[in-house]
Design goal:
sugar transport, 355 residues, mainly alpha, single chain, transmembrane, membrane, EmrE-like
């Protein structure tokens, strides 16, 4: 009887962790998209709250600052997680390069949100498994079984179909999202080597990387967007309420990182993979209901093929992992590490991907 109750509670806890992860993820994406455009449309009712804050570097910087403060509070004040101690030398030799790539990843995600619909951006982000495998094969000369390569076919095909049929296609936004996938893959691969020996969770990762990312991005944001922000403050009808929304997106971005920490510890790897792909579907649906961006039938089919392909890829990877670990003497197939965008959505979206 007690075992049954414990089992039921574990199922409920897993479900609640997934739901709160989805809620924070979708909210961060929607709020960030809202920041970059003129108005928000909710269920076909126009809510003319003009934000038009077209400064992705500054938005990313706000996210990094809020995440750094949030991680400090969680670790040192609330003591929810113990601090993983890193040598000062390793902070610059290991954490700083990771932070640089992490910074590029978040900025590209926010830049893509400015120019392309949420549904298109989320679909392109699903291309990350393919870029990770290709980079590991080209640069690190890792061997992958033919089943891994075959599982990438529907992902690539779905992305191509979605891109060709996208009604709101923007080349700059598309390239930003695509290079964001490459940055995510690079960060994942670097984490495998640079962070070897450190068992980081999402909170400790943000604790060490967000301050470095803020330091890297602060000067470019000031030089490239400082004058524009001053003009925006002088012309916006209600700048203080808009700034509250912008800083609230940073708080939500940290909450997203914390929710990922919770869901990882409450679910299995298979459940996490399936829930991650369903999360993309939820984000696409909600963004369409809110922003009403046009989606053609073939575009929706391409998005669906991509998500099914990502789920199939996760299944194949898990199956090969179980086979290699259960057969003594069988050489292990190098596996693509679970995407850090999913583990840390971000300070923008799947730190798992911000945003």
């Amino acid at each position: 009887m007690e075992e049954s109750i414990i089992c039921q509670w574990n199922v409920i806890r897993s479900l609640l962790s997934i739901l709160q992860w989805w809620a924070f993820n979708v909210t961060v994406i929607i709020v960030n998209k809202w920041i970059f455009q003129y108005f928000l449309c909710i269920l076909f009712l126009d809510v003319f709250q003009k934000l038009d804050f077209k400064f992705p570097l500054s938005v990313s910087c706000v996210h990094f600052i809020c995440s750094a403060i949030g991680a400090y509070v969680v670790i040192h004040v609330l003591k929810v997680k113990p601090l993983i101690t890193v040598d000062p030398e390793d902070r610059w030799r290991r954490i700083f390069p990771m932070s640089f790539v992490f910074c590029i990843n978040i900025v590209l995600g926010n830049v893509s949100l400015r120019y392309i619909p949420v549904s298109f951006m989320q679909t392109i982000k699903s291309f990350t498994p393919a870029t990770t495998v290709v980079l590991q094969w080209l640069v690190w000369r890792k061997y992958f079984e033919w089943r891994i390569w075959c599982s990438l076919i529907p992902i690539v095909g779905g992305i191509l179909l979605t891109s060709v049929t996208e009604l709101s296609f923007n080349a700059f936004g598309f390239c930003a999202a695509l290079f964001g996938c490459l940055a995510t893959s690079t960060k994942t691969i670097l984490a495998e080597s640079l962070l070897h020996g450190y068992k980081f969770d999402s909170i400790n990762t943000v604790y060490y990387m967000a301050p470095f990312a803020t330091m890297i991005l602060a000067l470019p944001a000031l030089l490239l967007e400082g004058n524009g922000i001053i003009d925006w403050l002088s012309t916006h009808p209600s700048p203080w309420s808009a700034l509250i929304i912008i800083f609230s997106s940073g708080v939500l971005a940290f909450c997203l990182n914390f929710s990922i920490f919770y869901v990882i510890h409450s679910t299995t790897a298979v459940t996490f993979n399936v829930a991650g792909n369903l999360k993309v579907a939820v984000a696409v649906l909600v963004s369409w209901l809110i922003f009403r961006n046009p989606i053609s039938y073939m575009n929706a089919v391409g998005c669906g093929i991509t998500l099914v392909g990502c789920t199939f890829y996760g299944y194949v990877r898990q199956m090969l992992s179980q086979q290699s670990s259960s057969v003594p003497g069988t050489p292990r197939t190098p596996k693509t590490p679970r995407s850090k965008m999913e583990l840390l959505p971000l300070v923008n979206d799947k730190l798992d991907d911000k945003v």
